[in-house]
Task: structure prediction
Amino acid sequence: MNAQEKIINGFPFIQYEAERLSADEIIQRSADFYQSINKRRSVRDFSNKPIPKEVIEHLLMAASSAPSGAHKQPWTFCVVSSASIKKQIREAAEKEEYESYHGRMGEEWMNDLKALATDWHKPFLEVAPYLIVVFKKAYDLSPTDEKRNNYYVNESVGIACGFLLAAIHYAGLVALTHTPSPMNFLTRLLGRPDNERPFLLIPIGYPAEETFVPKLKRKALNEIAVYY
Result:
């Protein structure tokens, strides 16, 4: 055991090496990050230009650095690049989306979607070079198949997805958070075990040569924050 390690409650801890930044540096960094991430948009028009696999691996490791309940890391990221599997996913997703747009969604929901110009057709599921299907692990299994609890699963996986989206934007790529409902077909198509449930479907790639996104206005600070 070296000087930077210690045992607490019988478990090893390491000293956290924080960056020692001035107040001005912190202000500048926070402003720079905001200016960058504020340009992030959900994109539905993808190029089929390939992405190096190494990029995807870096993005997934960034996502897996997210905090999780009791450090259980209750997520599995399924990376799909196979054209045949992407085609199957598109067909199954469009079937569910068609049902949603033709009866499942209420009038208010349909009206809210008009500004986004979206419908049940999802060609991006085949065009984007990669689909990342995020599964949440409701529980883990021991080597002897005993159930092991996971904690705050939805919160943990949601945070990891946020990290992933931020990393995708930082890398100069675009993504879309796609949630066809129900998503059980993803479990079947990808052969996932019973303890995993589909959480989010994320196409990743470069934007198409000509890409348009809705002209949206994000809420102002005084609409989202309350200071005490």
The chain has eight helices and eight strands. The helical segments are 23-37, 53-63, 83-104, 107-114, 124-127, 153-170, 184-190, 221-224.
